[in-house]
Amino acid sequence: MSTLALQIDDIEIIDAKPGDIGAEIKGIDVNEIESGAPILETIRQLIYRDKLVVIRDQELTADSYVAFTRKLGRPQVYFQPQYHHPDHPEVFVSSNVPEVNGKRMGVSGTGRYWHTDCQFEKKPLSFTSIYPLVFPKSARETSYIDMSRVYQNLPDELRKMVDAPGAAFVHEGQMRYKVQETDVDRSLRELLDRINQEVPPVVHPAVIEHPVTGIKSLYASSGFTTKFVGLNYEDNQRFMQAIFDFSERPEHVHTHYWDEGDLIIWDNRYLNHKASAVKPGELSKSYRIGIYDDKPFYVGLEP
Ligand SMILES: [Fe+2]
């Protein structure tokens, strides 16, 4: 990687510390990167290797942010339009900031539970990028768990279960649906049925293999994963709790403390993440763009 970095003037790349995640890139303006520039491949390889990449000191508009992600991969248009930026459907807006005409843009308080983006879809999202615009005073962090490390460290009795041939988890997003104004007068049953129709529960292998690095990760999160296939109700509850309790131990958590201008990109194949809660009355706004690379989400799944 350092050879690649040396090809590009003024760019500083600081690798993740051994055993940790997160590379840092300084000295680039992503608005200036041209399609096909070598730095794009450098960024992709850093994401695969260090799992999380922070690009410092960026000044992005919704427009230029979308343009950059188009060069890196294929930006996602999230399936629920209430999250979309009005002019750029690729931009997912998490915000509680009143806009000029008094209308709120996007949805507030997203992702404050351990999850990996679009885990409840047949083809989950490869990368997630976030660019905060308004920082709440008390909470300037996002937390991550490297699920490849969790897999390596799993106690034997859990490891045996997830390594068994055909071991798989069920994932569903219905309980995380955020009720909207247009849902008034609908029963919870109707809402749940509609969500289940739009995104029915999916099954993915309990352990997924990264299509580029071959690294294996435990693919489960307390936010979206509900069942281990083949267990009865009681055994399932116990097993899932043991998996989540182990995964979410403090020693597995990496916290990113945001600085103004940070653009962060991570690989959802390895990392679970959680947004921090914002205190009542504090404003917060960020743009997110999901990016698909041209690889399958895991070995064995169609790209
Ligand atoms: Fe998320």
- Give me the number of helical elements: 7
Number of strands: 16
State the share of residues found in helices, binned by percent.
10-25%
* CATH topology-level name of the largest domain: Double-stranded beta-helix
The figure for the number of domains is 2
Q: Kindly name the structural category.
A: alpha+beta
List ligands, each type once: fe (ii) ion
Please give a quick description of this structure:
This is Dioxygenase. This protein is α+β, with helices and mostly antiparallel strands and 303 residues long.
List the helices and strands and how they pair.
Elements: H1 2-6, E1 12-14, E2 23-26, H2 38-50, E3 52-55, H3 62-72, E4 74-75, E5 92-95, E6 127-134, E7 141-146, H4 147-153, H5 156-163, E8 168-171, H6 188-198, E9 202-205, E10 207-209, E11 216-218, E12 225-228, H7 233-247, E13 253-257, E14 263-267, E15 271-275, E16 285-292
Parallel strand pairs: 2-3
Antiparallel strand pairs: 1-2, 3-14, 4-16, 5-16, 6-14, 6-16, 7-13, 7-15, 8-9, 8-12, 10-11
Fe (ii) ion (FE2) binds at residues 111, 115, 117, 273.
Structural account:
The strands form four sheets. Strands 1, 2, 3, 4, 5, 6, 14 and 16 form an eight-stranded mixed beta sheet that branches. A three-stranded antiparallel beta sheet has the order 13-7-15. Strands 9-8-12 form a three-stranded antiparallel beta sheet. The chain has two domains: 171 residues, Double-stranded beta-helix; 101 residues, Clavaminate synthase-like (Double-stranded beta-helix). The protein is of the alpha+beta class and 303 residues long. Strand 2, helix 2 and strand 3 form a beta-alpha-beta unit. The protein is built from seven helices and 16 strands. The chain binds fe (ii) ion.
